[in-house]
Design brief:
This protein has 13 helices and ten strands. It is α/β, with parallel strands linked by helices. It has one domain: Rossmann fold, CATH 3.40.50. Helix 2 packs across helix 3 and helix 5 runs antiparallel to helix 10.
């Protein structure tokens, strides 16, 4: 099958308004499996549009909802309501949405990158919601800043560059946002492999969500992620399946040790899929994302 990029059809997109912040929500109902509900939280470098292929794959196992977080993927930022985009505030935001949308329903949570950081902190802060969760799936899920194979100089650089969130709005006002994100350190796009045969406009589409991030939020989070630690609360009695992508910068051994501190049951798979491969329509790639063991976890009855 030829690889191509596909934008989420508008029929699946709905307006989202939580805590006075407006954004978008993806929803696809599975009419044959009405008792399964999956909630997907994207990464900093993606959104509900670029993740359409993953969301379509997940929809075979139940009704799927995906959200953009404040200041990410074009959603209004926490700064609008005079709050900082801390991991704690994101966790509170996510818990509010789950209470509104799911009440006492059982759910499966899927978090990609930063989305997994947020959902883990949310579960640690909300034991009642944790009881509703039957499975957590992570795509490049990390538990602490040192799960990433980043040298000390680079980590210090991220912490320093993150301080620029203070002057980020000035950068936006003088038109430097696009240059900062497209040419600067935040673009980790790999233009090789599947993307080497795609048009440059498609490559820009793959990075569209990054450009739509609120710059102050993006810089602030870059600094916080370089210092965060989710290994400080009681262990969650929830099974975790961590999908580590082929081009990930995660130290697998350290990462597993830390995630086992947080989650009582840990499973891992390492498909031959890169980060930007997730955005490309390719049935073979998508089928390898969810292997046979993960399928059994997704389809079993609680």
């Amino acid at each position: 099958m030829k690889s191509r990029l596909l934008r989420t059809p508008n029929k699946y997109i709905m307006p989202l308004n939580v805590n006075s912040l407006r954004g978008n929500l993806y929803y696809k109902k599975n009419y044959s499996i009405t008792s399964k509900h999956l909630l997907y939280i994207p990464d900093l470098r993606s959104d509900i549009h670029t993740n359409f292929n993953v969301l379509q794959t997940l929809s075979a196992y139940g009704s799927v909802t995906a959200i953009d977080l404040p200041g990410i993927g074009g959603m209004e930022s926490f700064y609008k309501i005079d709050r900082k985009p801390t991991i704690e505030n994101y966790a509170d935001y996510l818990s509010s949405l789950i209470r509104l949308r799911y009440k006492n329903k059982n759910i499966i949570l899927v978090g990609q990158g930063f989305g997994f950081i947020v959902l883990t902190r949310m579960l640690q802060k909300n034991p009642n919601i944790a009881k509703q969760v039957r499975l957590v799936i992570a795509i490049d899920g990390i538990a602490r800043f040192d799960d990433l194979s980043i040298d000390k100089k680079t980590r210090i650089y991220y912490r320093f560059i993150g301080l620029l969130h203070i002057i980020a709005q000035l950068l936006v006002s003088i038109g430097l946002k696009y240059h900062f994100l497209e040419k600067g350190i935040f673009n980790r796009s790999n233009k090789k492999d599947l993307f080497q045969n795609l048009l440059s406009t498609d490559t820009k589409f793959a990075n569209k969500s990054l450009h739509s991030n609120d710059l102050a939020t993006h810089l602030y989070l870059l600094r916080r992620i370089s210092m965060f630690d989710n290994c400080t609360s009681e262990q969650l009695d929830i099974p975790l399946w961590n999908i580590i992508l082929d081009d990930s910068s995660i130290d697998k051994e350290v990462n597993e040790q830390h995630l086992r501190i947080i989650y009582k049951r840990y499973y891992q798979s390492t498909p031959k899929i890169g980060y930007y491969d997730l955005f490309v329509v390719n049935d073979k790639l998508m089928s390898s994302l969810i292997n046979s063991k993960l399928k059994r976890l997704l389809t079993r009855k609680r």
